[in-house]
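User: Structure tokens for this complex, please. No commentary.
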Amino acid sequence: MNDFSDALSSALLLLLHWERDLAEIVALSLRVSLTAVVMAAVIGMPLGAALALFRFPGRQALVVLTSALMGLPPVVVGLIVYLLLSRSGALGVLGLLFTPTAMIIAQVTLITPIIAALVRQVIEDLWQEYAEQLRSLGAGPARALPTLLWDARFSLITAFLAGFGRASAEVGAVMIVGGNIDHVTRVMTTAIALEVSKGDLALALGLGIVLITLSIAVNATAFLVKERALRRQA
Amino acid sequence: MTGGDGESILPLELQDVCYEAGGKRLIKDMNFRLEGDRTTMVLGPNGAGKSLLLRLCHGLLRPAAGRVVWHGAGGGDPARHQAMVFQRPVMLRRSAAANVDYALALRGLARAERAARVEDALDHTGLKRLAGHPARVLSFGEQQRLALARIWALRPQVLFLDEPTASLDPAATHSVEQIVTALRGRGTRIVMTTHDLGQAKRLGDEVLFLHRGRLLERSPAADFFAGPQNDLAQMFVAGELLWWRRQKRKLPTDVDPREGPR
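Assistant:
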């Protein structure tokens, strides 16, 4: 227990000083995860909505696959992206391995299924409610898609948050494709893993506190936005 | 004369229309023709197929057999000249005015034309002061009036109403009836279901009586309420058409005594 309180007090001291290295790590973490979430949303939202609205052969298989991919192990995703981006891989010529871009690619792969699956559920429920009315007004599924996404906007925040949570918390994928290189690809989770293995519990714990605080801040903001908007729109 | 632009999409004809769901035949060999400018009330007990019939006419459901035909020339696409109001109004998460505007935008109307029609529609349905309010915070009665405002703006030739006042209080029911009457006055052909016989008398010119998916009687409203031809319709008007009575009536034909119930 003493170890913990020692580590905690050192961690708080570290945070108080807020050194450049620490700031750099936090900034890179946010950059990678937020970029990944935005890109995954751009891909996953229309994909999920399309799965909810259109009937085509293989749709059910795709729905099951999307849900199954929600639980993708980050290390496996990291490995696959690693194989694709490594010198001998299909995308090796791009020279992206061990860059933040590689980390973003891995995280987009990881969270697109999460966003798509959650969006599919939300849009399917809403379509149940709207289908007859919208079809009566002359809007088929294709025309309804943007309408439904817009009307579900508050529920979609939850999908976005789930994606962000997954992206900012995972360590396996970014470790493999990023390599945890100091000043280049070191993010909070990989730094924590490294510091723990080195025995520097203070820095690890300090980063952990920052990570959790950021997560709470992002979720609280989203919650407030959603609450306010819902109160207005019912 | 009809409420839409140009030629009429009527007459509407149902030819041997059947509808099935879950292996059950819910609409059976329906044949009738709608034209003119009367208001048609579709009556019958729960499960008679009234709502299904409206959805088949409106094109929301496809018949399992038979055809739904719009005979009129009516500008090519009959779907553009008809509309439907549901028992539960469905409003989008935007303002009352934007809900009306959305329907007009789907029909491809220009912005200026839409704005004029939205204002006119909200005005005629008494919703002008609520134009900027989010539609989903309006009361149930106001939402149903907003659904009718949407119709007012769309100016359909034919309007299907599926128990539009089923969950409204008398005041809200009254204002819905006023708007329906005004729509009719503008030339919209009304086809409506209701469980409110008083309403059917107030608004209807003719009655279609349905029972267990079949059209059993069609007659002018005055004749129907004075004394229907059909014995089941007589029981219905007298308020005696109960579930067990129907079951009993079914016995001789549907159950073979040697085999027991199917």
